[in-house]
């Protein structure tokens, strides 16, 4: 027995997209890390940020710290670049499952800006949301230009990460993420509407 399709799949898509942006913002801000001593999440997370914690962990297993830091940074750059490319390809083919993989890789690159424990929670929550989106919304194929513009958030962040990551300043990357989100919202507002198909 199949479930009846939602009457407005475009509205369902917007709900999922807003949920994804919300969890990015929530986990980057991480209000539960604010403590009574007056330190903010930024101050408390800097020592445990995944971008620093992962290289230290690798260094404990024999890798030089500088090499381990570069390895983590390059891995994040590969993840965001691959995620952006997969997201564009998914929109061109109309594949919600492929889009979910791209969105998760994009999330992996952002997760290094969070404390390690918060990053694990973020990736678990993101995986759930993108899996539900892939299950309940099937995208229609789009032209290459429309696919590129609709995925400007991961693409813009990938470009910002490639340029700014070597300064090892997480605040710059968070600003690049917000700017890329703003640019993607403008681009999507200018795109002609292509309603997704709700999956039964």
Provide a concise account of the structure shown:
This protein has helices spanning 9-29, 41-45, 50-60, 65-93, 96-111, 116-136, 144-150, 152-164, 170-190; strands at residues 137-138, 197-198.
Verbal overview:
The chain has 200 residues and is an all-alpha fold. It has one domain (9-30, 45-191). Helices cover 72% and strands 2% of the residues. It has 9 helices and 2 strands, in the order ααααααβαααβ. The chain has a two-stranded antiparallel ribbon. The protein is globular. It starts with 8 loop residues before the first helix and ends with a strand. Residues 39-45 have low confidence and may be disordered.
């Amino acid at each position: 027995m199949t479930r009846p399709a939602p009457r407005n799949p475009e509205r369902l898509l917007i709900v999922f997209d807003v949920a994804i942006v919300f969890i990015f913002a929530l986990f980057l801000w991480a209000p539960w890390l604010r403590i009574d001593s007056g330190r903010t999440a930024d101050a408390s997370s800097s020592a445990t940020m995944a971008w620093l914690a992962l290289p230290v962990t690798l260094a404990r297993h024999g890798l030089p710290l500088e090499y381990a830091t570069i390895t983590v940074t390059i891995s994040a750059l590969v993840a965001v670049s691959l995620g952006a490319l997969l997201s564009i390809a998914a929109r061109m083919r109309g594949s919600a499952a492929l889009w979910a993989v791209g969105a998760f890789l994009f999330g992996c690159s952002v997760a290094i800006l969070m404390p390690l424990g918060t990053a694990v929670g973020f990736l678990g929550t993101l995986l759930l949301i993108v899996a539900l989106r892939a299950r309940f919304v099937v995208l229609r194929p789009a032209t290459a230009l429309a696919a590129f513009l609709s995925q400007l958030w991961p693409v813009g962040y990938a470009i910002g990460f490639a340029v700014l990551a070597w300064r090892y300043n997480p605040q710059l990357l968070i600003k690049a993420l917000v700017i890329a989100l703003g640019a993607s919202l403008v681009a999507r507002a200018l795109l002609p509407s292509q309603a997704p198909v709700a999956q039964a």
